[in-house]
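Lecture 7, part 2: worked example. A protein chain together with fe (ii) ion.
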Amino acid sequence: METSAKYSIDKNEKIKTTLDKIYNLPALPDIITEALRLLNNKKTSNQQLVEIISKEQSFVAKILSIANSPIYGLSKEVSTLDFAIMLLGHNELRHIIFVVSFLESFRGGDSKYFDQNLYWLHSLLTAKLAKRIAQDVGYGKSGEAFIAGFLHDFGVSISHRYFKNTFIEIREYIEKEKCSFVEAERIHLGITHSEIGGYLMERWNLPVALRKASLYHHNPIADLEDPFLPSIIHVADYVAGKIHSESLFWEDGFVLDKKVFEVLRVSEEKQEDFISKYENVIGEEQDLKGLII
Ligand SMILES: [Fe+2]
Ligand SMILES: [Fe+2]
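Predicted complex, written out as structure tokens:
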């Protein structure tokens, strides 16, 4: 009894310390604020969009390489921003800008404990799958699903970057105890990467749908208000995990919650086919690797 009371005090202290640190993290980088502003402002003209992006050459190159990647599967080579807008449309381009602004702001910081490239690859795969699933199950905002998929594990990258010592403890603990990443996070950080992502997005004022997609991606049914988008991300995350040629330690222990099929209105006899058809969506995982570095 005494031990469990002490454990709960320690645990609460740990959660509080972690949350304090999250709320003291740097503000959202300017480049992302700008991308977010663009995302929310549907009236930006094509010309304005091109002008804003053209300020950063590395940005232009990255946007074009994503536009030309298997994510979009365009039949023509896109060599200019004007052409990208013409082929992809204003909306798609704004989503790519948002993704690139994250890639540019948070890339680097590799360590032997966390392969950033693999992490971004998983984020892009989940984004692509989430968008496809959203379109298939009739979720009207497939672009939002793309971004929610891209950001779902953002808490993992944040905890590696800002809670490095604890992150190392977590990795060592997983090795020793053979437990899931989420269990080890609960023990060492007090909270999980889903919660870290959700809290940080709240602190950064990102749209509620994105916050909730991160917060509930491992347990979508816990979103009592509207589990639809978290369910899409849950399935996308699961399928992405199956597609990767390398295993991702932060996905270890991920179990597909079959209740999501009810939410997404997929009947029992169609569930297996529903999952397997997405396993071939990307083509070769290898084709996405060039996008990250
Ligand atoms: Fe996750
Ligand atoms: Fe994931």
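The chain has a mean pLDDT of 86. The pocket of fe (ii) ion (ligand 1) is lined by residues 153, 193-194, 217-218 (CB under 6 Å). Keep this in mind for problem set question 3.
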